[in-house]
Amino acid sequence: MKSILSLALLISSASAFFTQRSAVAPPSTQASHGDVPRHRSSASIVGLDASKSKRKVASRTRWSEARGYGTTDDATALSESAATVGVVGRKSGPRLIIAGAPASGKGTQCELIRARYGVVHLSTGDMLRAAVSAGTDVGRRAKDYMDSGRLVPDDVIIGIVKERLDSPDCAEAGWLLDGFPRTLAQAEALAEVGISADCFIFLNVPDEVLVERVVGRRTDPVTGKIYHMTFSPPDDEEILKRLEQRSDDTEEKVKVRLGQFHANVEAVRGSYADIAVEVDGTMRPEEVSTMIMKSIDAVLT
Ligand code: AP5
């Protein structure tokens, strides 16, 4: 009964979110998500052994308690929030990692995951772009790498992420790492300081689909919302006028970004093989979301 209720909540939460999204995207463009090649029959969740994962969660929770990460009161507060379906009974927030190639849909899915589980969303791409805009030392060191589509050096990003994960909001609400770790050195840096995750979600999307997604992506600088000029454009003229394109979202630069991704991805996936969930990212966003949330719920409950 608990799992039926949980699934019903999941479906209603995903459909409520996308009903909201459809308010800004005309029906014709919503339907155009269907233009993206899909492999529904191969939609898969692999590598997740629920009982094994529960044991891991239990041992991580003990680790977390021993270090003061989360208390019974935190869990009570979380369970009272409608945004934290699926974490009832846990003594600390979920610790999640989402990975995938450039434009595989990580940011799009993070909006939904954050809304449902109440976790702190940590996008290293967003953090670095903010540092570049603010002209900080980190931003100055990162700028040329980002502009050319290369990964910034590990020593620039590792310290920032470790510090952020150590902050009280992450300890209490849990976290969702988006775009980190991206190299073996980054994964090892987390492991060295005892930071582990409950679930590693990998969005699988072929390169040819990714190029089209990158080139058409636009972001609203006011709300941070991600659009696509073909698949999900805004229907509000004001929003349309203020949309921005990232400087690394060109066909030329995405080739460099994909090269960097392929050079590192297997090492990163290998670091999380025991908690990995692979999801077909070519499905419609709401279908991708349903698969992801089922997997997270299976680990957390
Ligand atoms: P980052 O910002 O992390 O970029 P990325 O990994 O290349 O990922 P993207 O933000 O491009 O894509 P996404 O997967 O979030 O897709 P989205 O949801 O937007 O990093 C930028 C740079 O920072 C790096 O190149 C590097 O230089 C540096 N950096 C960051 N982290 C680093 C690290 N750890 N180490 C070193 N350097 C680091 O979707 C894309 C588009 O597709 C959107 O238009 C969306 O509307 C559309 N879309 C999404 N889902 C679907 C769907 N299911 N069907 C159809 N369209 C969809």
Characterise the protein shown here.
The protein is α/β, with parallel strands linked by helices. The protein contains 14 helices and seven strands. The protein has helices spanning 2-22, 27-31, 50-66, 72-79, 106-117, 124-134, 137-148, 154-165, 168-173, 184-192, 207-216, 237-242, 251-271, 285-300, and strands at residues 95-100, 120-123, 175-178, 199-204, 217-219, 226-228, 276-280. Strands 2-3-1-4-7 form a five-stranded parallel beta sheet, sandwiched between helices. It is globular and about 45 Å long. The site of BIS(adenosine)-5'-pentaphosphate has 38 residues, from helix 5, helix 6, helix 7, helix 11 and strand 6. Residues 1-16 form the signal peptide. Keywords: Kinase, Nucleotide-binding, Signal, Transferase. Pfam families: ADK.
